[in-house]
Amino acid sequence: xxxxxxxxxxxxxxxxxxxxxxxxxxxxxxxxxxxxxxxxxxxxxxxxxxxxxxxxxxxxxxxxxxxxxxxxxxxxxxxxxxxxxxxxxxxxxxxxxxxxxxxxxxxxxxxxxxxxxxxxxxxxxxxxxxxxxxxxxxxxxxxxxxxxxxxxxxxxxxxxxxxxxxxxxxxxxxxxxxxxxxxxxxxxxxxxxxxxxxxxxxxxxxx
Length: 207
Prior knowledge:
The chain is α+β, with helices and mostly antiparallel strands. The chain has helices at 6-11, 24-41, 47-54, 78-81, 86-99, 130-138, 159-175, 193-203, and strands at residues 105-112, 119-126, 151-156. The model is unreliable at 1-21 and 56-79 (pLDDT under 50).
């Protein structure tokens, strides 16, 4: 396991996070939007649709640098690294509430190539146990069959934290020239990039 997932083992593996309740404002907004989409379209909204429904969110240019476990962020630096506006927080919390509906949890994982020292980082989620969720994702042989079995990295009830954690792994492997991810998990202009990264750094820190 240590050879297959050095970064995950260095950071330490935790159980499902114990999270505080989302703000009443976010819960109410998410519930209303979800009901509207289910009634009209029979499905939950995408991030863009949720963004449009909640109204404009001012984009905050990212102040963060590629994640480095050798220089972990401390708590009082997180707001400076990843500034989040009130509107972005509302949007992010509402989306977290929608994604976790039905008791879903979310996981980050990594897979090592069979023949090369290269790693693919990903995320998944579901209502099964964390390991079962990862195994189910692994059964699809994504991104290809040329990998060892996926290794569970972290798990959380909050989608945003795992979304940010996936990007942490991608940046770590990329900084060492061993990443097999061709694109970022979170693009630089993603409206919720700072929210995702801030939550990941807050929740997953070295022991």
